[in-house]
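subagent[fold] <- orchestrator: predict structure for attached chain, return tokens only, no commentary.
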Amino acid sequence: MIIYIYLFSWSLAGVFGVDSVKSVSVTEGDSVRLNPDLTEIERDEEITWKYNTIMIAKTYGKDSKSRFYEGSADGRFRDRLKLDQTGSLIITNTRITDSGEYKVFSKTSETPLNIFSLTVYAHLSVPVISRDSSQNSSSSSSSCSFLCSVVNVSDVSLSWYKGNSLLFSISVSDLSRSLSLHLECLDDFYSCVVNNPIRNQTTHLNTDLCQTCSDGSVSPTVLISVAAGFLLIVAAVGIFFIWRKHRKTDQEVQTRDREITSADPTFYKKT
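subagent[fold] -> orchestrator:
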């Protein structure tokens, strides 16, 4: 009964093929093992591995002998392939050019027993944060503009974060990109992150590069505005008191003249 079940499942795989593609991701330079999960009966058969449509390796089952086609696929896999007893394909020292589909076949099947979609990602460089001089020259002295840059990467995301909140992000498809950030001051924890599906690199913004909003400091523009307003107020108060003093003096003179005139109506005639 057990043998019958194995034969039945093996024949179904040969007729209908694999149900889905298994996605595998790895960083360049690491080793990766593609395990097709073969049954014992399948492992006893001749097993063939193909990279896209190119044959790269074969194992002869019970004889435990393996053959590698070193010259296939432009020789890119030379001395980097292994097959273990389970029929798994091991690729050492992976390269970006290893990305693609890997299919495993048995001798008696025309459809693949398993399909692997392998993606090899380049090492992520640490993002670099610098002052954006082109923006700072046209901005107020209290504001800060920064550039976060990455080089020698592709198919990654470059993002600015404030604390744990994403501010904005771009997809980097070429080898060198920058993402700018404009701040009036630093009031939280800022960082720049570059990431791919399996890894990320983070650089935190140095608070010495821009004044903090919580340190009690006030921008020169604000200080000038406050000082100008204060001087205007002082000037207005001074003018008011001078005007009031002159008005009071005039009123006193007029009052004194009226008193003298009342007391001696001929005073002005005498003088």
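orchestrator: received. Logging for downstream: Residues 161 and 191 are 5 Å apart (CA to CA). Confidence is low (pLDDT under 50) at residues 1-16.
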